[in-house]
Design goal:
Chain lengths: 230, 399
């Protein structure tokens, strides 16, 4: 379960005289198997929220807890290790490594230290590929995949370590309208099957009905540094 | 597998995949690094080895005699059968040199070629002096027979009892000496020296090829009168019907004869083996005092002078290669640095997924280590190949 409580995070002003950025979030909870869409205008702090939830950033005040681990009490390296082991990330631009084939990309977290790359892990990865309908592409270079196949590969990579939380930053942003719904559904179903929570940032309001919860970050946070709306 | 070992294994896996994906760039970097490592070592090693080989043959050859001229030309002709000096000494002057039992003279008669390989006239003393052994057949016994160096026999695919023919001396001189067809009676065992690349004959055969001796139909008193067009006490004018023999056989061997005095026959060079140090000192003293009719040099001293020049050029070459190596290494560093910048998104992705800086550094470092490792292997293979090419280096050094 992901829990953010009393979060305040300040970005320093880029230049003298310019306004600093402050994200204040009273409370956010997301349990395993559930999904939450984060919407809001540009600059309201959606990406910052994902970075706080993933442990890339640490809040100035407040608590970030994932499956009993308090990010706010951990150092950067411990947060990184927790992210590698417990969080999957889906990027808008897929971020696949061109020099690896599909299965190579899916298994990348293990090669980066997420755990033992044993027979069981490989079987699990193959199962994910089958689940998302790209099992036959396992050994194809990712440069020869369609956009939809690329994002399915990225989803498999995010799920391969059996994370408790999947963070998705505009996961359908680079997909054509026909693929958007299909792939989002596949992401949410695959995560739900594995009891993983999904926290997704999206601008696509047509897809919000697919999520269990929707949070308009523009309505619940303050980014002026002076007031917090709740 | 321990965590660290497993991490290194995964890093190498990812590094190999990346290098294979960018095979063209990887190959170029490997080639550049290989050359950077290989060239200075190769130049240094090969010149050293070539120098050693040159010195070894020169050290085995005490004194070299020949006509006045450039000592280096004389020594290269006597040791390596290179282009003979323009001037020759006479057999008479050589024999005069050895008078007094100070040294054994081993004459070398050169000037002709067979299929671009030197034809070298020597007597059996040369074979014994160089320790040459006949692998197949026997040493030549009479004029018209020849023995092939191992490399020549291999290159031509010729064996005992085959026939070879000398190159024409003057293509357009119809009255000149004809090419001589010779019988191969032996093939030498490989010696790893210049002796492998020549055709050995007796001095007499070499002189026949030079046109100093020849054989033809008899034109004496009993000969067919049609062959003789005129006769005085000193001169016999023969008909064009008289056959000039181009091969020495048992039947016509007796007809071969020299014109001119024996002591005037040309000798390209001679190896002089003094009987002792005192004899050598006396001979060199006479040479230094200008008392000898020929030039006499110590082969090792001449080769040393040649190598001094070669090593001076090597030093210059090594300096240039050093600058080229530094420039190439800097270029490779720039290419790798640019590559990392181009891969910023890939590296950021690995960090975002949760890779440590150490792990990402291990992956990138593995790529560099693999490139360097392959480059070293390529350079080593090149070095091994070059080591086998020392004879060619000798040829390069002695022109």
């Amino acid at each position: 379960m992901l829990r953010l409580e009393g979060i305040r995070f300040d970005y320093p002003a880029p230049r003298d005289g310019e306004a600093s950025f402050r994200l204040e979030l009273p409370s956010l909870e997301l349990s395993g198997g559930r999904s939450m869409a984060i919407i809001g205008p540009s600059g309201c702090g959606k990406t910052t929220l994902l970075r706080l939830a993933s442990g890339i950033l640490a809040p100035d005040t407040g608590e970030v807890e994932l499956d009993g681990h308090r990010f706010d009490r951990l150092g950067a390296d411990a947060r990184r290790r927790l992210r590698l082991a417990r969080i999957g990330i889906v990027f808008q631009d897929f971020r696949l490594l061109d020099h690896l084939d599909v299965i190579g990309n899916v298994l990348l977290p293990f090669r980066l230290g997420a755990g033992d790359l044993n027979r069981e892990a490989r079987a699990y990865a193959s199962g994910l590929l089958e689940r998302l309908g790209i099992g036959h592409l396992a050994h194809r270079p990712v440069t020869r995949l369609s956009q939809g196949e690329r994002q399915r590969t990225a989803i498999c990579r995010a799920l391969v370590t059996r994370p408790g939380l999947v963070l998705a930053d505009e996961p359908t942003g680079n997909l054509d309208p026909r693929n958007k719904r299909v792939i989002l559904d596949e992401l949410l179903e695959a995560a739900r099957d594995r009891e993983a929570a999904v926290l997704a940032v999206t601008h696509d309001h047509d897809l919000l009905d697919a999520f269990d919860e929707v949070v308009d970050l523009g309505a619940v946070v303050s980014n002026s540094g002076n007031e917090v709306a709740s | 597998m321990s965590g660290m070992a497993s991490g290194i294994g995964h890093a190498i896996h990812l590094a190999v995949r990346h290098l294979r994906h960018h095979a063209g760039r990887s190959v170029l970097i490997v080639l550049a690094l290989s050359l950077v490592g290989f060239l200075p070592i190769a130049v240094d090693g090969v010149v050293d080895a070539g120098g050693r080989a040159l010195r070894a043959r020169a050290a085995d050859t005490p004194l070299v005699a020949g006509a006045e001229g450039a000592p280096i030309d004389l020594v290269l002709a006597a040791l390596y059968f290179r282009k003979p000096p323009d001037r020759t000494m006479t057999l008479g002057s050589l024999e005069a040199l050895a008078t007094g039992e100070l040294a054994t003279a081993i004459p070398i008669v050169m000037g002709d070629r067979v299929k671009k390989s030197p034809l070298v006239g020597v007597d059996p003393a040369y074979r014994d002096f160089r320790g040459l052994r006949v692998g197949d057949g026997r040493w030549f016994a009479v004029a018209g027979e020849c023995v092939l160096g191992a490399e020549v026999a291999r290159r031509w695919g010729i064996s005992v009892d085959d026939r070879i023919i000398t190159e024409p001396r003057e293509m357009f001189d119809l009255a000149g000496a004809y090419p001589l067809r010779m019988r191969v009676v032996g093939v030498l065992e490989p010696s790893g020296s210049a002796d492998d690349g020549v055709v050995f004959v007796s001095p007499a055969t070499a002189w026949i090829v030079q046109g100093l001796a020849h054989g033809h139909d008899k034109v004496d008193e009993e000969a067919d009168p049609e062959l003789v067009m005129g006769r005085t006490d000193d001169v016999v004018i023969v008909s064009p019907k008289v056959r000039e023999f181009v091969e020495i056989t048992d039947e016509n061997r007796a007809s071969f004869h020299f014109h001119g005095k024996r002591e005037d026959r040309p000798v390209t060079a001679a190896i002089l083996v003094p009987h002792d140090e005192r004899s050598e000192t006396i001979l060199m003293g006479r040479a230094d005092a200008g008392l000898l009719p020929v030039q006499l040099v110590r082969a090792s001293e001449v080769v040393d002078r040649l190598l001094v020049e070669v090593f001076r050029i090597r030093r210059i070459l090594m300096s240039v290669l050093g600058v080229v190596a530094v420039a190439t290494l800097l270029l490779v560093v720039v290419v790798l640095a640019l590559s990392i910048r181009i891969r910023a998104v890939e590296i950021e992705t690995m960090h975002l997924i949760g890779a440590s800086r150490l792990r990402v550094g291990l992956i990138l470092g593995s790529e560099v280590v693999i490139l360097i490792g392959i480059s070293v292997a390529v350079a080593a293979i090149g070095g091994i190949v070059l080591t086998g090419a020392i004879p060619m280096v000798e040829n390069l050094l002695i022109g």
